[in-house]
Amino acid sequence: MASSPGAPARHLPGFSTPAVGFDEPFAMLQACHERVQRTLDLLARLRDHVQRHGADQSARDAARDVLRYFDIAAPLHHQDEELHVFPLLLAQGSAAMQALVERLQDDHRHMAADWAAARLPLHRLASGEATAFTPADAAAMDRFAGRYADHIAAEEGSAYPAAEALLAPQSLAGMGQEMATRRGGG
Which CATH number is 25-176 given? Predict the structure, then answer.
């Protein structure tokens, strides 16, 4: 699924960086982190908008965008890490790297639970059942968003470089192909 120079870029759901393709799976994982951050920024703007203007059509549309990303693309990204990055580091990484991976896996479990709590008020807003967020809703969204910063920094700063160094170059193509297939491509 690599794009050749001069060929039009394929735009994939959740990825807006046209130069990144599944032939560069670690760059694709980082591009997903950029999308996570943009979607968390949208969530913050949505919360501010609802506080100032209520649950208008723009707010409902933004809530649907946040729901779509974290219901579909983010779980695929976590699955990519759980299948391709973490097992390699647990099997061949240093003791410190193995401990980091265990923390990152724990983060994924907590993120799933945090998202379950944060998505409820977003769903209510998107469907027109709610017109504002409660303090409890805000706390759930804060927990969810707050967990990502350290998580992404640890993956990009330590886990990804270590896994990429351990992965045989010929294995990158298989990793990228599996990632593409999970998303309906390839």
Answer: 1.20.120.520
